Protein: Ancillary SecYEG translocon subunit
Organism: Undibacterium aquatile
Amino acid sequence: MAYDLEEQEQLATLKATWKQYGNLITWVLIIALAAYAGWMQWNNYQTNQAGQASQLYEELQKSVTAKDVAKIQRAVGDLKEKFPATSYASMAALVSAKTSFDANDLKSAKSQLQWVIDSGKGDEYKALAKIRLAGILLDEKLFDEALKQLSGEFPPELQADVADRKGDIFVAQAKLDDARKSYQVALDKATEKNSVKQLIQIKLDAIGGSVESVSK
């Protein structure tokens, strides 16, 4: 097939360009394809991990319903060991902490909650673990440690719960002014749908109402 002069010049330019940059272009393509393949493989791995973790979490829920402590502990251990990067591991540890607390095994409950705080995934799960751990520390009269768990930033939807728990701690310390302030903050931050809003109001009224009402 014959080429006209313009086409021959274009071919010559292409050959010269490929000769100069061909290896570089090839490597760029190889790297790009490898990165894409790696990304696809990682996504598939993540999906597979989440699927397996979901099945194991379902088994955990069945064990909770059956009150089979041994199976609960085994399922939680497997989720934390094999699928720590999934939210199911954090949820499982929270469930296990609740089960241990109900069984009056506070040491185990605290251990599970601490794992979520230190190694769990998801800010909301970590925040829940801190609030629940503060509650256990309150029961143990470790007030300073309980308040320490409630320091720092929390998701907006949990700030009312944090303030409510702080109020409980201050009441236990007989710091009623601080308790009133905390309960008032809890009321201000609680939405109308918050099921504990009425309880917060009852607790606030029980210690004399808001700071403003006491000063009048």
